[in-house]
Structure formats: structure tokens, C-alpha cells
Amino acid sequence: MWRFPLRLLAFWLLFFALFRIWFILWLRAEWVAESPWPALWNALPLDLSMAAYLMVLPLLAWFACIPLGQGARSACARLITGFNVLVFSISVFGFGANIFIYQEWHTPLNNRALEYFRTPGAMLDSMSFGFKLGSVAAYVFGVWLFWQLYRRLVGTGLFPPALKKWNAAWLPAHTALLFLAIRGGLGVMPVNESAVYYSSHLFYNHAATNTAWHVIHSLIETRSTENHYRFMADDQAQGRVEALLPRGNAHAARHEWLQLPPGQKPNIIFILMESMTAQVMEELGGEAGVTPNLSRLAGEGLLFTRCYSSGFRTDQGLVAVLGGFPAQPDQSVVLLQDKAAKLPSIPKMLKQSGYTNSFFYGGELTFANIGVWLRNQQFEHIISEQDFARAEITQRWGADDGRVFQRVISTLNQTPQPFFSTVLTLSLHTPYDVPFQSQWKGSTEQEQFLNSAAFADHAIGRFFEKARTEPWFNNTLFVLVADHGHINPGRVRMDAPRSRQVPLIVTGPLIHPEWRGKRIETLGNHHDIPATILEELGYTADAFTWSKDLLSSQVRDFAYYTNENGLGWISPQGAGFYQFESKEWQNFGSSPDSTDQRNAFAFLQTLYNDFLGL
Fold it and tell me: Is residue 88 classed exposed, middle or buried when 0-12, 13-18 and 19+ CB atoms within 10 A define those classes?
């Protein structure tokens, strides 16, 4: 009963493994001191998922033919075998092409590479006769080799005489197992490339990535290459953006808010707070008493009172805060490896300056492909849910913030200085099942949200209480910011500016006494953090072309945000949200004037051109 499904599964796993071995050996120039061979078993999650996809139609046909007579079964066996031969013949071509494309582009086969197959003449013209001949010979040999393996492993007699008609009743069990394999288990998030990314060396992660899975994923995630947010000529839009984000002098001067001996490199800790909206911080007009620890930290440092998240998801927030790249309405750059890899980032810059990079999160990093992006940012040490004991998984999404911060302390105590560490919290996430009870005890979503926000603040307070006793604390700069805003607790619509307003706090013992307790009223975004922080640290932020220094006297006062429905813009003149479908502005208080509206259009148009050009 299980012979055919298990043997077909074994064939596909062997197929993937053999091509992976070829990939690793052929590209041995990419090897580093670390062995590449762990890629073979780290690849299993995506290999199992892809194998299950390829088995769906053959198994359905096989079960459909079980109740039939012997003659019909023989015909079915020929049909199933023919289908499998067709699929692995196409796969031989794709997996083989992946090796040579990677050798040329250092990127796996994807939708962009497939565009070249639409013009085979031009593609063939770029190849030598010897390469063409060798490629044809390799392909023929590959198909022959896998046919031999298929015959010996799977066979062509798929319906043994002992198989009874009632065995078709096993279909639901097989279907369930295929579903689990395709999804990657029963976890919160389905499997993606993050499940196989295990190394700080990108080549090894690419070796572990299933080529077919990656191609299909890139085809699904990549939309049209045409900018459908065009409002004016590109040169006009570019000119407006250059006026909004001037380079040079606006980013050149230090402001002396950081007191640091010459030549000394500070430790830097970013804390990205899940959903920690301005609505729960009293200093930002939020609910009183929810975040006393954030209030205290703001009093010890700088509080940016008019900071907004350009996106509304964690993956967008990560790229904005660490990479200085604003969110797009219908895309998430972190899902597109080839584009995301071209963006600058704070951890990559600091790594080149001798920093040790680490990332902490209590949940699964397969979420939104975040694990892949983090590896590409040169985080050497990544702690996630799999690194916590089962008893420490106290929330549906993973280990609660308190336990994560305990791990941060113990890890940093053993980390060489200077270090750059990023902590992504999760406790303020639905279903708000924190191991904590505050004064907000109600069962409504708003009360549960406030209780979870209070717990997240409590965990941050305990972290700082413990960190102050550690030897690295006095040489550490802390940046706290929410990953995105939220509709709760005030049930604010996501197109309203208030739902995107987030606390941004820069604090720690390195803040100059004259700057402690200051409130910065400049309008800005997540993606302005790189320029604001790096310039003060003595680094150039020119690579972060979408980031502005919020402390510069020459900076333009504006904030941008977006979602699938439209474009938001905030300036001293007013705030508004342009709806893509109705092509109308919805105003919040004073309305943006015509100049602001044109600037908003120019910003999005140029940003999307930049995104498409990555």
C-alpha cells in the first residue's frame, strides 16, 4: 500500500540530493573554511515540500485507478510513469541550468532568469558551440541517468496483484501527509526558504535551497515589472525627491548628542517592539500607565515624537529600520532575495567595521522569509524559537519577551565587543496570550492588547534593570522603536496617520547629559533611523538614499506611509491619504496642499522605480 508513494518520494529526494552535490562540487570556488555538506540535510524541509507537490497528481491518479480492472491499471501505470518522466526531464533542465546561471550571476534560477528563455535565439548566440554541445550531452545523460534510477527505485509496475480495491480508502491519509509535507508541518507559518537557511555564507544557503521551489516562489511573489504608481514624468518625480532628501551637507555634521571618546566604538542594541503603537505611550498622547519603562527610558534619552512606520507588517519594519528602505504598497522586498540582497543595511556596514552581529526573536523566522534576509545581513548569531526549550515556549507565537531578553543578556555576556544586536519582540501579537496580568483584565481585544503592551513594557524594564549590572552596559547605545503601528487600542483605521505613529527612543549611558529628556518634533519615518544614527557614529549614510537625518537643521519635514489601498503623507501643512481606486485624498485635520500631494506622488513613484530596478 505504501510502496509506490514511499519509493516515489525517495526518488525525488535522491534527485534533489544528486543535483545539490553537483552544485556544490561544480562551484567549489565558492567554498569557505566551513564545510558545505550540511546543506544536504538542511535542505530537507524544502525538498520534502517540493517532492510532495510533485507527487500530488501521480498519487491522485494512482488511487483513482486502484478500484479498476487489471487492464485499466496497466494503462494508468503507463500514464503515471509518462507524467513522472516528463516532470523529471523538465527538472533536469531546470536544475542543471541553475548551476550555470549561479556560476554567472551568483543567484539561483528565478523568474528574471526565465525571461531569457523567451528569446532562445539570443541566449544560444551567447554560447560557444562546445558549450552547446556539452549542455545537450549533459542533458541527455541526465535524463537517461534518472530514468535508470526511476526504473530501479520506483519501477513501472505500480499496481502489485496484492493491492485490493478497498485500499483506495487510504487516500485521505496520504492526502493529509502530502499536505503536511507541502506546508512543512503544523507550525504557525508554512515552510519557505528561511527553513533551510542555516549559514552566514550565502552560497551554502543557496545550495540548501530547492531550485524548483525557489523558481515557483519567485514567480508567485514577483508582480509586473511595470511601475503602476506613475503620476508624472520620472525626471520630475526624481527632482522632487532630491529636494525632499538632499545629500551632502544635510547629512554631514555631527550633533554631539553621543558622548564617546575618540576612536571608541560603542555597542549598539536595537529593540524592535512588535505593534508598540504610540497609542500606548502617554508622552505621545496614548493611554496612561501602560508603558512606564518606555517613559523612563525616553526621559533618559531622546524621544522622537512624530515618527511613523511606512509599512504595516514586521517584515516591512525590519527592512525600513535596518536597511533604510521604505515600504511599498503591494510588495515586500524581503520576500524577493535578489532585490533585498542589493540593499544596504546597518548590520552589514557595522560588520565591515569589526562588529559582532546577533539577532534575537522568540518566534519562527520562516515568517515572511525573515530568516533568509537576516542571514544576508551578516548576522552571525541568530536566536529564534528553535533555540528555546519547549517549556520556554509560553505563547502561541513562541517564547515570550521576558524569556527572550534573558537569552539576550546571557548571550551578550559572552559576545566580543563591539557588538550590534537586534531584538525583535513578539508578545504584543495576537492572540495576546502573555503570561502576565496588569490592571487591564477585560476580555475585549482592546483590553487584551493593553495588557500585552504592559507586559512587553515590563519585559523591557526588567531587561534594562539587568543590563545595567553588566560590564558592557556603559558602552552601549540603545534604539527602541516599534516595528509598525496598530489599530488598537483606539481601533484607528490603518489609513489614518495615528495608526502608523510609533515611539522612537534613543537612550543609554552614552547620551550626552544636555540631550537627555529632549523631544525631537521632526516628522520622519522608520527608514530615517540609519542616517540619524550612523552619521552621529561617524559613518557615512550616503548608501541609505531614502534615509534622512532627523536631527539636521536642513532636513525636510514630512512622513510617508502606505498600504495596498493607498498612499499617506504627513507634513506641517496637514495629513492625507490618497486612495488608489477612487483617486481621491482623504484628509485628517488640515489637508496637504497641492505641493505636498505632488511630493507624495513623486516619492512613491521614484521609490517604486528604485524597487523595480533592484
Answer: buried
